[in-house]
């Protein structure tokens, strides 16, 4: 079986055979080429390269023959063409100098005139376009005076539908019932004034009752009693404010059939009697003035702070029989409660504002939490990270939340965020593990590459010392952590070739038996 080395040599010889000649044959070919070149020259000898010809004195072509004669004729024609070109270039350069001097003087003026002509041409084109469009607009039918005539416009259109009689009668009723509308407004104003008077009387009676029934004095009232009274009042005010707010936030009930609004609507359609406007306005003005006076008197009564005329009695002199005294003999205690009532009213207004603010904040927070929860649910449905790394115990938590009656929005948001945090941590750990595995695979591949390089050095016949020094340098760079457990594990299975085995093994070129030498081309 032939060896690979002999096959390689055979292939090389077969490729180079067409180009390798014996020495005698090569000398014969050279002599033939020299004779052919000598026949084409003037003196028949090749002493210098053909390209180095003197341009000034190329020589005459009449005394030569063959290819050299053709070469000299072409060279003479080239030299003559160059001289003609140089002469014409020199003549043209001297002739263009005065023309350039003349053109530099009037070039700026000609340029300005050309620019002015261009601007005038553009202006003329614009004016022509405007005139053309004005002529076209004058020829349009919209330019005629009868173009906007309604009869001409609606000549071919369909007639409008007839207006229902009910609508016409309702419009006429509204036009004729203006006075009735004013009368209804007057009636409503009278009702409001009457209600205000009744309310004022009730408040005055309640104040008189409180003054007659109250026997407490600021000197005899203890702090605990004041605190208890304030707490009770505060609780009642809070309950009343919450009830009013709940009523205001809900829908208004429908008006009953006998309500004033329904009677007002009925009166507008039924009353058509003419009334005296001036008298009605005067009566309305008088009633409004009475209402203002009653309101001022109520405010003055509330703001009064009279001093007590009777000295306060001592606690030991107070008898249980004092409760049975007539109201005429007791001091007006309502006057003493007036400052507390004012403070309670101020506190009630503050608490009302706080309750409204709390309600607004709760609504805003609930809306934000709902939006965040919806966004997190949508992202969880489209996410590929959470299904890949599910949180343990998520199903049990969902079932417990479904069974529980509490609906804490903040806990729901935090519970929806926890799976994302857990999935991110698990993805980070998985990424670290993958990177560690890839690094270990790279270290194993590096060990294999080093082993392959050592085998290549042995095949190339490098010295053991140079290979050892190179290996030491590589270990200094790439194997700085050779003492780690991973490196020990990877190097344990590798098989290194000893230098003794490398010394015993010969190179590939030692088996080549042949003295080819150099392919010399000289004789």
Automatic annotation (TrEMBL):
Native organism taxonomy: Eukaryota, Fungi, Dikarya, Ascomycota, Pezizomycotina
User: Is-annotated flag, keyword Coiled coil?
Assistant: yes
Query: Which residue ranges have biased composition labelled Polar residues?
Result: 319-332
- Protein name (record): Uncharacterized protein
> Which residue stretches does the UniProt record annotate as biased composition, category Basic and acidic residues?
86-97, 306-317
Q: Where is this region: Disordered?
A: 86-107, 246-265, 304-335
Presence of keyword Coiled coil: yes
| Keywords of the record | Coiled coil
Coiled-coil residues? 108-140
């Amino acid at each position: 079986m032939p060896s690979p080395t002999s096959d390689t040599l055979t292939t090389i010889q077969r490729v180079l055979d067409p180009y390798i000649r014996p020495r005698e044959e090569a000398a014969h070919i050279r002599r033939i080429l020299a004779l052919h070149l000598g026949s084409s020259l003037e003196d028949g000898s090749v002493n210098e390269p053909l390209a180095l010809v003197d341009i000034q004195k190329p020589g005459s072509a009449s005394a030569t023959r063959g290819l050299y004669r053709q070469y000299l004729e072409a060279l003479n024609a080239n030299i003559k063409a160059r001289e003609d070109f140089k002469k014409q270039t020199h003549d043209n350069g001297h002739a263009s100098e005065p023309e350039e001097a003349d053109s530099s003087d009037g070039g700026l003026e000609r340029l300005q005139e050309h620019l002015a002509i261009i601007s005038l041409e553009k202006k003329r084109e614009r004016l022509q376009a405007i005139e053309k469009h004005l002529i076209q607009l004058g020829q349009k039918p919209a330019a005629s005076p009868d173009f906007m005539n309604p009869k001409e416009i609606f000549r071919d259109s369909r007639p409008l539908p007839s207006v229902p009689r009910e609508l016409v009668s309702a419009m006429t009723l509204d036009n004729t019932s203006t006075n009735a509308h004013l009368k209804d407004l007057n009636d409503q104003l009278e009702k409001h004034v009457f209600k205000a008077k009744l309310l004022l009387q009730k408040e005055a009676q309640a104040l008189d009752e409180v003054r007659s029934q109250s026997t407490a004095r600021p000197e005899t009232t203890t702090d605990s009693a004041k605190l208890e009274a304030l707490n009770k009042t505060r609780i009642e005010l809070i309950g009343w404010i919450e009830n009013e707010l709940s009523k205001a936030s809900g829908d208004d009930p429908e008006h009953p059939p006998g309500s004033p609004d329904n009677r007002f609507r009925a009166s507008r359609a039924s009353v058509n009697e003419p009334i005296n406007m001036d008298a009605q306005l005067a009566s309305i003005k008088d009633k409004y003035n009475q209402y203002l006076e009653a309101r001022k008197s109520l405010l003055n009564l509330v703001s009064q702070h009279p001093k007590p005329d009777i000295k306060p009695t001592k606690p030991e002199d107070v008898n249980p029989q004092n409760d049975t005294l007539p109201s005429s003999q007791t001091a007006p205690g309502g006057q003493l409660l007036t400052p507390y009532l004012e403070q309670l009213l101020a506190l009630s207004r503050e608490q009302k504002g706080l309750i409204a603010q709390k309600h607004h904040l709760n609504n805003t927070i609930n809306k934000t939490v709902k939006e965040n929860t919806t966004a997190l649910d949508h992202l969880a449905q489209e996410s590929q990270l959470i299904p890949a790394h599910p949180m343990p115990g998520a199903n049990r938590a969902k079932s417990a939340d479904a069974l529980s009656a509490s609906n804490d929005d903040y806990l729901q948001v935090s519970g929806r965020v926890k799976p994302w945090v857990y999935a991110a941590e698990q993805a980070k750990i998985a990424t670290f593990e993958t990177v560690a595995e890839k690094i270990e695979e790279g270290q194993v591949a590096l060990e294999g590459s080093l082993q392959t390089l050592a085998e290549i050095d042995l095949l190339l016949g490098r010295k053991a010392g140079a290979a050892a020094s190179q290996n030491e340098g590589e270990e200094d760079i790439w194997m700085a952590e050779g003492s780690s457990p991973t490196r020990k594990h990877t190097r344990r299975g590798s098989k290194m070739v000893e230098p003794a085995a490398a010394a015993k093994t010969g190179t590939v070129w030692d088996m080549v038996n042949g003295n080819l030498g150099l392919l010399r081309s000289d004789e």
